[in-house]
């Protein structure tokens, strides 16, 4: 208001609009309304930003879990294949200790991505 008074005095007028009590209340109300509206808009923006940040973080965690799960499945598949391709003494023991008449040899982990237990055919 002091700035308005200086401008009005330079123009040669005696008073400003806010000197009238009714106009002062109206100007004060307008100013407060604008301030509250600005505060509410900032709150809403912060909430939206927080929500999008949480959503992004949740998606990222889900992607990381999927990646770990795929790596684990791949490692298990790889282990099964390496056991079959490069047998060790332990594999021969497992093979020799199987029951008679058994045509399938069950290996420790899942053999495919569908979650079915891997079975290697023994000829």
Automatic annotation (TrEMBL):
Region described as Disordered: 1-24, 43-73
Gene Ontology cellular-component annotations: nucleus
InterPro entries according to UniProt: DNAJC8
Superkingdom as given in the UniProt entry: Eukaryota
Biased segments, Basic and acidic residues type: 1-15
Protein name: DnaJ homolog subfamily C member 8
Source species taxonomy: Eukaryota, Metazoa, Porifera, Demospongiae, Heteroscleromorpha
């Amino acid at each position: 208001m002091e700035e308005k008074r200086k401008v009005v005095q330079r123009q040669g007028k005696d008073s400003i609009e806010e000197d009238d009590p009714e106009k002062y209340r109206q100007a004060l109300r307008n100013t407060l309304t604008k301030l509250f509206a600005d505060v509410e808009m900032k709150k809403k923006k912060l909430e939206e930003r927080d929500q999008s940040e949480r959503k992004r973080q949740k998606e990222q965690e889900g992607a990381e879990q999927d990646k770990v799960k795929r790596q684990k499945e791949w490692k298990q598949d790889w282990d099964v294949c390496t056991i079959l391709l490069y047998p060790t003494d332990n594999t021969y023991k497992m093979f020799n200790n199987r029951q008679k008449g058994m045509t399938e040899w069950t290996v420790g982990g899942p053999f495919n991505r569908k979650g079915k237990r891997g079975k290697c055919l023994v000829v």
